[in-house]
Amino acid sequence: MAARSRRNKTTEIFALGNEAVVEGALIAGGTFYAGYPITPSTEIAEEMSSRLPHLRGGVFIQMEDEIAGLGAVIGASLAGRKAMTATSGPGFSLMQEHIGYACITEVPLVLVNVMRAGPSTGMPTNPAQADVQQARWGTHGDHPIIVLSASDVQECLRLTVTAFNYAEKYRTPVILLLDEVTAHTREKISLPDPEDINIYSRLTPSMPPEWYMPYEDNMRGVAAMPPLGAGYRYHVTGLIHDDHGYPTSKPREVEHIMHRLFRKIDQFFYDIQIVDETQCEDAETCIIAYGCVARSAELAVQQARERGVRAGLLKLKTLFPFPRPAVEKMLRQCSSVVVPEMNMGQMSREIKRVNNGQSKILTLNRVDGQIITPGQILSKILKG
Amino acid sequence: MAKVTQLIHNYLRHSKRFPHVFCPGCGHGIVLGSLIRSIDSMGLAKDDVVLVAGIGCSGRIPVYVDFNTIHTTHGRALTFATGIKLANPRLKVIVVMGDGDALSIGGNHLIHAARRNIGVTALVLNNHIYGMTGGQSSCTTPTGSFSTTTPFGQLEDEFDISRVAKVCGASFVARTTVMQASAMDSLISEAVMHPGFGLVEILSPCHTQYGRKNRFKTCVDMYKWLQKSSPPLEKYRELTPEKQEKAIATGIFEKKDCEGLEEKYARMRRNLRGER
Amino acid sequence: MASKKGESRVKVFLDWCKGCGICAAFCPSKVLSVDKQGKIRVDHEDECINCGFCEIHCPDFAIMVYPREERPPFEANIDDVAPATREELHKIRNSNSK
CATH number of the domain at A277-383, out of 3.40.50.920, 3.30.200.20, 3.40.50.620, 3.30.1360.70? Predict the structure, then answer.
């Protein structure tokens, strides 16, 4: 055993962010992809279409639109598959209803949204980070959701695995946000040995079918989930349902399920919160960034340090549930916090919400379809 | 005949409250009975049947039966069914949709499911109206008839569901009415056993929302009208063109040998993996 | 399926019956009718030919036809109790006055 674990099985490849997502999905056990082509996410579909049919039971299907894409993914997930889809802005808007359906029926799935600029058709080949709040609040009704954001190609791989793990663990849709730049950057990544990676798969019921309650409340707030056809016949509905899965409108039962949905994410908050701290220990000025902007920010931190400014970077990989403890720590510690992002202030809104006057918050917004440069961040740090 | 009722009781969910939600005289209950009888006659195990439904009156059908049941979003039932069938081709996936569900909001999915010939069975319960939302016109509301959103008569032409399915390439298309329950049993069985995409259009009158606004005094009048105006295909062909216009042909319109998409995909996968 | 008259019994489950009247309208032997309370009543059970139309066309699974010699698979009848007829009432009154 020891000999095997010493053997280095990592290989290095040259890959696009989109291709790294596919590598991650396959490592995580994804065997089903359904989607609709949309720039700049198409490489994910293309890569999946040639890779999945080689896997045992692997299925790729190109559906008639994004709504159908996410519908088929939910169906496959109910049938027991780890399933995913990928899209970009307009497609993401179309998928919103099914995201809500997956939330209330607690169907695990991974949705990759490669963000492109502008509302509507916008600029299909230019990056932006403007779908952050849509990812959180896009579908109607109160719902909890997990939103992750990757800033480089290696992270695309790792966070796709994480996204599948969270989806399976908490029976929830997980949205992975990339921006066009990250998705279309080609760089060297190392493919991890699948045996070194922790893969989580949904729990299937242990009890006889007659005992089984599909939406039972337990300590975890997450019930076991059998695949269709395994002998556990139950009802899945987008209507508010009771523990048995049947529609209900009794106030007590409605409150119960809504509270449980939120609790299952809230109580595992510290498992879900992933942030990277770079030179934060002694920082007086902190940059809070995510996605491709975090890479610019890394360089800006270095340059600021060279100029004698004690800067640090807090990179958010989990955007929602909002990593409030990590952010609050920096707000308490730093005299100023810079929030550069490629939108009109979607994440800085969250940060301002938890600031309570502890720190000076400087926003840096860019919405011209170009990425924020290290120089821009640096001058924001220096000039305030 | 008592066995028929006992058989149905065996398939109903005992934890659900009965009588079901449908209005008095709604044909959907008859379809539910017919579906149960046909599944029983095929000898399918309850575990192997997945009943997927959309939104609307027809969407309420699955909750009453003890299969794997999924009540999806409006119009998208076929997309869920496609995912389920591809993920586990062993399952018999039956999709229950209404006319608005299948042809209006879900029209795109219906034509593509028919085109790609995925091995699921679509039962389209055509009641010519949006029943659950209160009787608004649908894409199958006959020209000239009244609804809450066509108070002066429907101006648009209606969809012929079976024809739409046929031209989109569905490999099994049939139409029946709830007045012909025995024929419906065998048509549903045939469609479910058919390897590719099968569609059965079932005329299921809605007296509460459609009949009352269109000069049908009772639901029995609607059933009598249905019996009178839905001749089998052979008889329909003998009618004069004027009479054909008023009649709705029933029977099998299309049946061709084919292979479902899931089988083709599995074969491709076997070839790529060098199996068999 | 069909059998001779007088060989079948017809059972209506009033709890589930919504009184739509389909069974009564299409019964070939006119066995059934809709009563004043909007439920189905079995009027002429002896006329039933066990065609089975009502059983498979009842949207509410509320009617059942079974052979006369068999017991129904289940039943919850309150037997032999019915409101007194006019004659009975008259008789009781007379007997008490004696």
Answer: 3.40.50.920
